[in-house]
Amino acid sequence: MLDTLIQSKTRLKLLLRFFLNPDSSAYLRGLAQEFDESTNSVRVELNRFEESGLIEGHKEGNKKMYRVNRKFPMFDELQKIAFKHFGIDQIIEQIVENLGEVHAVYLTGDLARGLETTIVDVIIIGEDIDTQYLAKLVEKAEKLVDRRIRTLVYEPNDKIEIEEPKLLVFGEGI
Length: 174
Known about the structure:
Distance between the termini: 34 Å
Radius of gyration: 17 Å
Structural class: alpha+beta
Shape: elongated
Number of helices: 8
Number of domains: 2
Largest sheet: 4 strands, mixed
CATH class of the largest domain: Alpha Beta
Order of helices and strands: HHEHHEEHHEHEHEE
CATH superfamily of the largest domain: Beta Polymerase, domain 2
Helix content: 40-55%
């Protein structure tokens, strides 16, 4: 749906990349390589976003790094749109409302990096989570969002070390 509204594929990829993982930063060549796009097309979009205040650029050594501007007036709305694009809002809503005492829900993997993916990796931290019921919810959600969902469940007192990028989408962070 978003690809109909936003004609530039590079622009759409950048929006999703920055709004699905607002804590990440990236540089021009890294983004071009990640998206398999020319550096020029990525540069044009980054310049537009920076001029509008949507992203901020800063120097790290000889690289100019970019990250989303959380103070941008429409930050929350754009992030919600990015979540809806992937159906994340529906997945999280089903998990939190019906699963038990959920303390936190994280997205990890490619989606947390802001990359287009057919697999959604979810980490759930909570007490007395009914894993059989979770399996049923996942099955329903997969049909709803047309993506495969992989889940990991932890108790709040479990020692959790998440190496890869993670995106907190519900609750309080670890």
